[in-house]
Amino acid sequence: MELTSAFILHQRPYRETSSLVDALTRDHGRVSLVARGLRQTKKRSSPIQIFQPLWLSWYGHGDLVTLSQIEKDEPGYRLLGNASLCGLYMNELLVKLLPVHEAEPDIFDAYRQALSSLQQNNNEQITLRLFEKALLSHLGYGLALTVDVESGEGIEDDGIYIYHPDSGPHRVFGQRLQNTVSGRSLRHLEQETGFDELSLKEIKHMMRSVINYYLGGRPLHSRQLFAGLNQFNTKTN
Amino acid sequence: MAKLGPSIDELISALRCLPGVGPKSAQRMTFHLLERNRDGGQRLVQALSHALDNVKHCKRCRILSETELCSRCDDHRRQQDVLCIVEMPSDVLAIEQATQYQGQYFVLSGHLSPLDGIGPDALGIPKLIDWLDKNIIEEVILATNPTVEGEATAHFIGELARARNIKVSRLAHGIPLGGELEFIDSSTLSHAFSGRESL
Ligand SMILES: [Zn+2]
After folding, report:
1. Chain B stretch 100-159, residues whose beta carbon is closer than 8 A to a beta carbon of chain A
2. What is the mean pLDDT of chain A?
3. Is residue B94 part of a domain?
4. CB of B135 within 8 A of CB of B163?
5. Which of A14, A147, B16, B59 is placed for a possible disulfide with A20 were both Cys, Cβ 3.0 to 4.6 Å?
6. Which domains does chain A have, with CATH numbers?
7. Residue range A201-221, pLDDT digits in tens
8. Based on the domain organization, do B95 and B163 belong to the same domain?
9. How many CB atoms within 10 Å of residue A77?
10. Which pLDDT belongs to residue A42?
11. Does pLDDT of A44 surpass 60?
12. How many Cβ atoms are within 10 Å of B96's Cβ, its own excluded?
């Protein structure tokens, strides 16, 4: 096969000297590979890192294939500070939500764009929300952001909605409910612009419930990292 | 693999818990011990059993130790207000051999890795926080590996220390001493370039 653009999402030791590699490729989607002897060469050159654009090829069929060639493409994305935690979060999201061997170049491009945005220290919250939106959409779980699915009416800025992951926004009136999202925030997410602190907060909660729905109860460990940072820091402050 | 008898098979399979030991090497070791070096085997049994009974983790820095506090943590001549955070026990030995560092250590036994389910608790972070809160620490030196996960771990701990007004430093990553730019791999060079210092 020809070399394909790829990123390593995760790798772990396998047998004595090999690694089990989870990769996101542009032309073949997510692929699980056995990399023989990769760990042995580790000491000589610097090992392959996540967030490093690569060229990959492999042989074999089925769910687990064997890596045949690996080359670095351009310099890797350097995510420093909080951006590194955001990057780990995106990788976990991809490994847990993306089926293997389903080519989805748009997801690859969205991932690459998000890495670049994180490297440039753009607003992390916006970067993550847009990545989640693109990921859901290209997985076929696209968000409905323009109409109230109950009444069929357009979303109004000052309307209050509850977003049901399996259908979309339902307008609610009167009583203060939890986990609501304003029409204004839905518009920001739809237009991918205009975000502010309030809309980012509402959208974050909404996205979390949508993603939880598709995860079907599996936890995201990287989320606990962000939570841990807050928890450990507020305990004594 | 051919059945050689339950005791031999069990020994071969037990030896495979060692890193880098596959079926072939395990079989070779087994034959060696049983055919040629039964005394060595006896010694191995005693040393292993003794070590398993007596070696625990230092309750302060988490390195392997036969006493509650390891010799470094128990040494009052060492600087008490500088704390160096490393991923592995072998990193402590490497730093001790290579530098004049005379402060304290904390061994994480790994790095943050959400996809392996390794979070702050598995790295002993609550214990580290307790240390930071109950002692006067002037500086935390983050000596985790220059990998993405090591970087994320350093950031995580750095934030905790900063929130407590503790000075945080990170090991510099650069070109090996005596190296020539031309022959250094691109990631190391780009790392060294972006981490350049003003003179
Ligand atoms: Zn100790």
Report:
1. 112-120, 125-126, 129, 133, 147-149, 151-152, 155-156, 159
2. 89
3. yes
4. no
5. A14
6. 4-138 (2.40.50.140), 143-215 (1.20.1440.120)
7. 999 999 999 999 999 989 999
8. yes
9. 22
10. 46
11. no
12. 13
Claim to verify: residue B38 and residue B114 sit in the same structural domain: no
Q: Which pLDDT score, from 0 to 100, does residue B188 have?
A: 79
Q: Is B186 on the interface with A (CB under 8 A)?
A: yes
Q: Domains in chain B: how many in total?
A: 2
A51 touches chain B (CB under 8 A): yes
Q: Which residue type, as a one-letter code, is found at position B184?
A: I
Q: What is the pLDDT of residue A236?
A: 47
> What are the phi and psi torsion angles at A121 (to 5°)?
60, 30
Q: What is the DSSP code string of chain A?
A: ---EEEEEEEEEEETTTEEEEEEEETTTEEEEEEETTTTGGGGTSPPP-TT--EEEEEE--SSEEEEEEEEE-SPPP---THHHHHHHHHHHHHHHHPPBT---HHHHHHHHHHHHHHHTT--HHHHHHHHHHHHHHHTT-PPP-SB-TTT-PBP-TT-EEEEETTTEEEEE-SS--SS-EEHHHHHHHHHT----HHHHHHHHHHHHHHHHHHHTT---HHHHHHHHHHHHHHHH-
ipTM of the complex: 0.83
* pTM of the complete model: 0.86
Contact between residue A42 and residue A71 where contact means Cβ atoms under 8 Å apart: no
Tens of pLDDT, residue by residue over B115-130, are 999 999 999 999 999 9
